[in-house]
Automatic annotation (TrEMBL), chains A, B:
<comment type="pathway">
    <text>One-carbon metabolism; tetrahydrofolate interconversion.</text>
</comment>
<dbReference type="Pfam" id="PF02219">
    <property type="entry name" value="MTHFR"/>
</dbReference>
<feature type="domain" description="MTHFR SAM-binding regulatory">
    <location>
        <begin position="345"/>
        <end position="645"/>
    </location>
</feature>
<dbReference type="InterPro" id="IPR003171">
    <property type="entry name" value="Mehydrof_redctse-like"/>
</dbReference>
<dbReference type="InterPro" id="IPR029041">
    <property type="entry name" value="FAD-linked_oxidoreductase-like"/>
</dbReference>
<keyword id="KW-0560">Oxidoreductase</keyword>
<dbReference type="GO" id="GO:0106313">
    <property type="term" value="F:methylenetetrahydrofolate reductase (NADPH) activity"/>
</dbReference>
<comment type="subunit">
    <text>Homodimer.</text>
</comment>
<keyword id="KW-0021">Allosteric enzyme</keyword>
<feature type="compositionally biased region" description="Low complexity">
    <location>
        <begin position="10"/>
        <end position="25"/>
    </location>
</feature>
<dbReference type="GO" id="GO:0005829">
    <property type="term" value="C:cytosol"/>
</dbReference>
<dbReference type="GO" id="GO:0035999">
    <property type="term" value="P:tetrahydrofolate interconversion"/>
</dbReference>
<keyword id="KW-0521">NADP</keyword>
<feature type="region of interest" description="Disordered">
    <location>
        <begin position="1"/>
        <end position="45"/>
    </location>
</feature>
<comment type="similarity">
    <text>Belongs to the methylenetetrahydrofolate reductase family.</text>
</comment>
<protein>
    <recommendedName>
        <fullName>Methylenetetrahydrofolate reductase (NADPH)</fullName>
        <ecNumber>1.5.1.53</ecNumber>
    </recommendedName>
</protein>
<dbReference type="GO" id="GO:0009086">
    <property type="term" value="P:methionine biosynthetic process"/>
</dbReference>
Length: 645, 645
């Protein structure tokens, strides 16, 4: 009876439980992951993700962006990546702007924008690349750089020839297929390759059929999937798809969707793509061409109905959106299609990076909780990332953070806004306390402006921190200037909307944590109070010069967040690590100057107040180890103030 | 005010928090341990342990044993190591028996006994080694072997010359000091070296003073500490110690204590050591020389009073006991001195090995919980041991277990006793169920014998398992033949006398675990029942042929015991690992045959019953992932029986 179930190994596609295995020779199999897979997505390549979604009948979408022209536009685009990333795109792609030095290190280059999307926003990303008018060496150089930056997917395109008199070069890159072949020759299977399909045929192709044959060549040269040019009628795509299948193209073909967002952008796109807008669309648009809102509404309507028809055909599993770097229309379409899935559950308590090197990373110091991009930047040279235990890491030192100007590290808010929030003029340390307090309470400052960010937190208070709001307000008013904190959690379900993370069926835990700047007077009292809590509270207290006071045993890290999941090892994604705290200290103190003091004139009283705090305050972190009991850290602070009075 | 506390880094002697450190260059310091130090003892060498104990004013003791003559005596000596190890000796030492092929692989050799003490009993161990009449190559060979086996301490002795006409050899090893120099020359600082001191002077020395000079030479050649020959009066030792100090010997000098245990052993020892028994002792002993108990009582009394005097002198921090391989007298003396410290708290839930390679080991599969020596044996070739996560281990396969005859793997009980416990004659599978049930209940079997061990458990039921006794009894009666189990624990203090482990101030957790053999009929029903518990219970079911059924995701290990401690990362010392389960399966099935079936004649009905079970039963393990809820595994079994009826 039992034999009928033999060789079953449910829940795992990489089954090793073959009936014949004797076990003892094979006890340490390489096929086993070295870290618990909390999120299969992190370990799969894009084509595998597509396959898995298709098999599961799980529809998806992707988003196309072009690189911005200015550094400020880049800052905004990155915020857009973060916001639109929340809707759950399977990937985004970044176009290649031959005119914009696309492979360079400029913050607006295609390469750097794609790098940012992968590494700092954690998005699966396709980098476009065109090949005409470029040398083999140039192209190889770009591809090597892309690989080095952790990019894993290339959209291989011919690109637009420069000038009218373009002629095919012998042995040159004349067609996208040459680029596909080159990538496969030089980089083997490293990249997933996407190619473009033209539902109406490429405008320069001899015929629709000839163009289909070109597409087949690209696929047979090694492309993994196809994204199509935009089109206006669903039947255009469905016919194209059937024609592809008929000539033996079996890879995924993803329709490119262009929600019409305005009269001019439509005209421009049509001109570039040499497509014709169907009469029925022109008939609607022409009369309302000066009414942007009306056109956008119509565009959304049209896109939704076309997407519905595509999805209902059963032939389409994913939709690719030409966003034109805009949010509203595409988001609206996705929400109406119920494809926009804001999943409040997080695989880990912090946002994971999509760089393949960081695939196994599952533990970070808590200090960078509000500055994940800075953490990623400062650890970008590491070859290995800690997983399982922080202490196991053989990673090198943190990189210096001198590049506060970099667009993924600087505040989203311009100087004028920051001045309104943090004060045009500071008169005393107390006016700094007020800024911190307003940030916590969400109430307007004395000039009527809400403080929505701080040098250490570019976003409003996290939902979790809100749990501590009242207590935080009280202590900030009195000069305990908090920059990071978490409540203690004793086994909440991993699906808890506020503190949950990881797969369902688990339990998450936290030790209470509080990190703040404060004066040396308060530190002196605090240290006396901490003696009473010696066995319960771990502390690290450091000033800008690195004078360091701690009771951490043997400089070991203290796990402050962990989760227990069915069938897995324990995950402990955040630690308070005494050693990296000293690297964080440099950054935390520098932010006073870089982000705040420098808003003011040199020698101005405001600037001198911030400089004084920078020079004289201490950075303190406290952990209450007794997570099952009520958080004692507020009592510690209370006792400290009592001692001072 | 704060400056007075700067540069303080309490709780750590390897402080890195110097005031000048800028932090960012030094964030990944090599001096940091790669694993949480739960037990500093595991990371220190013997001389450091001595120093730390002395600094802490913490008195200690050590125990000397000689290698046994027979394999059976070796089995008994190992049990004695385990029992006397429980009292907390700082180390044990094993003498070198030149006549007994001391460096060989025989189970009774000095080398192998010391190896067993270190690796299988987890005891810090000193191996004696003598040098006279041996070639340099022989000695180097012994030392290399000792190092390979994980021995870290050598007692360097001259040894007794063979025959009367011994003469010093030029360039030979004529004195212990030659051996000390040789060890330091060839092995640098690898070994801690102990040498012998003679409170009355060596019998062959020209004078007491000349002998002191020899001792000084040995120390200056590189010895780390001194253990003395036995003596009968405390003042003998105290004078000796002062004389040593006077000539510049500053290393620890440990008095050798010989509790008189019998008339004949005393006479023999006195003869060998050429010591004279003081008249006041002779006066007591002679009249009672035929009354062993009286002599032993006197010996204990005498030793206790001498040890008290030594300890009270303030010059003595540790006591070394010549046990003569006996337990009673030494244990009695230690208990009366309050040096015997049975610490029910365990650094980890399993007994750690003292091999330096295993210093960082802190996670093991739960399967070997009752067979730690076998686990150590089967993993002895591993170069790295898992720490932090099981899944991180790059360890090779488990060694085959063919050596059931080895004295550290076989049952402490002789065949006749096993037959009484497990049945001289089995009549059916049910008579096997009875044996399992009697082992659980502690009640005598039908022939009136208590079943105190099983092939999978050489000791009576663990205290923790006792918590499950009633449920276990019920299921064993019905053919769920349990061999391993643990209750679920949701955050008990780490000092809990039954389930606690690790340093105080922590919390320990467990997932409920149940492992058993059972028939294929029961397995079929069980699998149907398990469908209901799919998300909650992980299972592995395997038969002797390796047919394997599991719902473990991606063959990942499941952490089933973990602990949260102040200021440390999470420790998860036991896992249910799908891959190593297949290695354990081989061992667990083989034990039916090796330990049980082979007690009976070939072809006998008893043997055939065991063989039938071996060939047809399944080995099952179940984990209830919902550790905060009531253990559901009993309900799973209940449902299974219900389905069968």
């Amino acid at each position: 009876m039992v034999n009928e179930t033999q060789q079953t190994c449910s829940g795992s596609s990489s089954s090793r439980s073959d009936g014949s295995s004797s076990g003892s020779e094979s006890s340490k199999d390489n096929s086993r992951c070295s870290t618990p897979v909390l999120d299969a997505d992190r370990h799969e390549r894009l084509r595998e993700k597509m396959r898995r979604r298709q098999e599961a009948g799980d529809k998806w979408f992707s988003l196309e962006f072009f690189p911005p022209r200015t550094a400020n536009a880049a800052v905004n685009l990155i915020s857009r990546f973060d916001r639109m990333g929340a809707g759950g795109p399977l990937f985004i792609d970044v176009t290649w702007h031959p005119a914009g030095d696309p492979g360079s290190d400029k913050e607006t280059s295609s390469m750097i924008i794609a790098n940012t999307a992968v590494n700092y926003c954690g998005l699966e990303t396709i980098l476009h690349m065109t090949c005409c008018n470029q040398t083999k060496d140039d192209i190889t150089g770009h591809l090597q750089k892309a690989k080095r930056l952790g990019l894993k997917n290339i959209m291989a395109l011919r690109g637009d020839p420069a000038g009218e008199e373009w002629e095919e070069e012998v042995d040159g890159f004349n067609h996208a297929v040459d680029l596909v072949k080159h990538i496969r020759n030089e980089f083997d299977d490293y990249f997933d390759i996407c190619v473009a399909g033209y539902p109406k045929g490429h405008p320069e192709a001899e015929s629709y059929e000839a163009d289909l044959r070109h597409l087949k060549e690209k696929v047979f040269a090694g492309a993994d999937f196809i994204i199509t040019q935009l089109f206006f009628r669903p039947e255009t795509f469905l016919k194209f798809m059937k024609d592809c299948q008929a000539i033996g193209i079996t890879c995924p073909i993803i329709p490119g969707i262009f929600p019409i967002q305005g009269y001019h952008s439509l005209r421009q796109l049509v001109k570039l793509s040499k497509l014709e807008v169907p009469q029925e669309i022109k008939d609607v648009i022409e009369p309302i061409k000066d009414n942007d809102a009306a056109i956008r509404n119509y565009g959304v309507e049209l896109a939704v109905s076309m997407c519905r028809e595509l999805l209902d055909s059963g032939m389409v599993h994913g939709l690719h959106f030409y966003t034109l770097n805009r949010e509203v229309a595409t988001t609206e379409v996705l929400k109406r299609l119920a494809l926009w899935k804001e999943d409040p559950r997080r695989p880990l308590p912090w946002a994971v990076s999509a760089h393949p090197k960081r695939r196994v990373e599952d533990v970070r110091p808590i200090f960078w909780a509000s500055r994940p991009k800075s953490y990623i930047y400062r650890t970008q040279e590491w070859d290995d990332f800690p997983n399982g235990r922080w202490g196991n890491s053989s990673s090198p030192a943190f990189g210096e953070l001198k590049d506060y100007y970099l667009f993924y590290l600087k505040s989203k808010s311009p100087r004028e806004e920051l001045l309104k929030m943090w004060g045009e003029e500071l008169t005393s340390e107390e006016s700094v306390f007020e800024v911190f307090t307003c940030y916590i309470t969400g109430e307007p400052n004395r000039n009527g402006y809400k403080v929505t960010c701080m040098p250490w937190n570019d976003d409003p208070l996290a939902t979790e921190t809100n749990l501590l709001k009242d207590e935080l307000e009280k202590v900030n008013r009195r000069g305990i200037l908090t920059i990071n904190s978490q409540p203690n959690i004793n086994g909440k379900p991993s699906t808890d909307p506020i503190v949950g993370w990881g797969p369902s069926g688990g339990y998450v835990f936290q030790k209470a944590y509080l990190e703040f700047f404060t004066s040396s007077e308060i530190v002196t009292a605090l240290l006396k109070v901490l003696k009473k809590y010696e066995l319960r509270v771990n502390y690290h207290i450091v000033n800008v010069k690195g004078q360091n006071i701690t009771n951490a045993p043997d400089l070991q890290p203290n796990a402050v967040t962990w989760g227990i999941f069915p069938g897995r090892e324990i995950i402990q994604p955040t630690v308070v690590d005494p050693v990296s705290f000293l690297s964080w200290k440099d950054e935390a103190f520098a932010l006073w100057i870089e982000q705040w003091a420098k808003l003011y004139e040199e020698e101005s009283p405001s600037r001198m107040i911030i400089q004084y705090i920078h020079d004289n305050y201490y950075l303190v972190n406290l952990v209450d180890n007794d997570f099952p009991l009520e958080n004692c850290l507020w009592q510690v602070v209370e006792d400290t103030f009592e001692l001072l009075n």
